[in-house]
């Protein structure tokens, strides 16, 4: 039985969609807020996720962005009342595969669910998630990297932080955003920990670590990646 994570804070919609999906032989796990959704996503396997945007605790955009730091494969559909073009674009940029606005017809949602799952099942092999910049290479699927020190393996946290920065290339990412996305919403290490990770990245990948070209500090705010 295929498993779906349904993240929706409106109880009536949540229960109605859950019931209809179960009638079509899906196993459905629900979450009413973003924190609970992230907990489920970290602890369980799902074949697809349906996520609202306007959620308590952690919004849907942040949920998907954090999931995508470690999971590039699970199909995700946004199901939301936010129907502006800018919202759809942001949702797809965060890593969603589809975007359906409310009000909606359940048959359309079901069709999109089936198509995404079918597409994934036809391509079961994990594709290398390769990223190159300068003379450096990073495989986010295996955590293997190639830089100034030759070939080496990143830790999971290093890979997550590097993925966050490279996905937002050209944007300033604050220390608070980094802590929330990489370390979660319940564990807050010292901001000095982030600084040490950035220093490591410069040693790994910069031609001149003292004068970085890729991992830039933005004083009083955070960091920016430039390729």
From TrEMBL:
Modified residues (4-aspartylphosphate): 52
Assigned GO CC terms: cytosol; protein-DNA complex
DNA-binding region ranges: 128-227
One of the record's GO molecular function terms: transcription cis-regulatory region binding
Keywords linked to the UniProt accession: DNA-binding, Phosphoprotein, Transcription, Transcription regulation, Two-component regulatory system
Record-level GO BP terms: regulation of DNA-templated transcription
Pfam families cross-referenced by the UniProt entry: Response_reg, Trans_reg_C
The Response regulatory domain, residue ranges: 3-117
Limits of the OmpR/PhoB-type domain: 128-227
Protein name stated in the entry: Two-component system, OmpR family, alkaline phosphatase synthesis response regulator PhoP
Organism field: Neolewinella agarilytica
Source species taxonomy: Bacteria, Pseudomonadati, Bacteroidota, Saprospiria, Saprospirales
